[in-house]
Amino acid sequence: MLRVKPTLISRLRQVTSQEELFTFIQCAIELEHSTIPPYLTALYSLLPGSNQAAADIFTSILREEMLHMSIASNLLIALGGKPCFSKREFVPRYPGTLPMEVDDGLVVGLAPCSKDLIYNTFMRIEQPEHPLSLQLPDGSRSSYPAVAAGKYSTISEFYNVLLDKLRSLTVTWGQREAQVTPETAGTAWFRTSDWFPITSLQTAEEAINVIVTEGEGATTSPVDGDGDPAHFYRFGEIYYGAKMVQHAAKSLDQSWSYTGPAIPFDEAKVFRMPPNPKAADYPVGSRSRLLVDQFNQAYMQILLALDTTFNGQPRHLNAVLGLMYQLRILAYEVLGQPDPSDPDLTSQPPKKSTGLTFEYVDRVIS
Question: What is the model's pTM?
Answer without folding.
Answer: 0.94
